[in-house]
Amino acid sequence: MVLAAGFGERMRPLTETMPKPLVPLMGRTLIDHVLDRLHAAGVETAVVNVHYLPEQIEAHMTTRADRGPKTIISDERDQLLDTGGGTAKALSLLGEGPFFIHNSDSVWSEGVTPALPHMQRHWNPALMDCLLLLAPLSTSIGYSGRGDFDMAPDGQISRRGERQVVPFAFAGVSLCTAAFFEDVPEGPFSLNLLWDRALAKDRLYGVRLDGRWMHVGTPEALTEAEASFEHEGA
């Protein structure tokens, strides 16, 4: 599931005339970075949701017809459904899973261990309801917060307290199954709702990104990410 429906307001003025997933980074659109990485990890089909300037994203998907993964559009023109609601709407297209849920503005330079296959290897439905990719704050670009999660040695994670600083940020990718969406509300809701449910049952886990995460949320972060890719030869 590639989340591509949002307005990208923090990326203005670039997003006044194009949807954020089509903003270029190093000569490729953000969504191409995401789809190419999913394809390299063995993902055969990607569901892409659309709401803001949807025709542009649909047209761009036709340019990828000769390379994977196969893309299917989940149409949210009538109502923007947020990260959880958008994925719930697309469950009939996603199947039982497990499947990735991937933000369209989350890119990274890989370390020794590629992130998505690393998540696939760590997926264990006996222990977890959802598995999150977490990036160390110390090496991340475009993120200025105090962290999102702490992580125990076994991978179980906990949220940052109100006055805490924790070492990891959510890097924009999670792995779960359709069962994770049982008894969800109608309409828009955030994935945070489901993460909190999993946290209450000690069933939310994470894996550490071996690489440099780039949260490309603003024009300034885009410039910083470009410079990092050029420096690392990514």
UniProtKB/TrEMBL annotation:
Residues 1-122 form the Nucleotidyl transferase domain. It comes from the Bacteria. One of its GO terms (molecular function) is nucleotidyltransferase activity. Keywords: Nucleotidyltransferase, Transferase. Pfam families: NTP_transferase (PF00483). PANTHER family: N-ACETYLMURAMATE ALPHA-1-PHOSPHATE URIDYLYLTRANSFERASE, NUCLEOTIDYL TRANSFERASE. This is Mannose-1-phosphate guanylyltransferase. It comes from Methyloceanibacter methanicus.
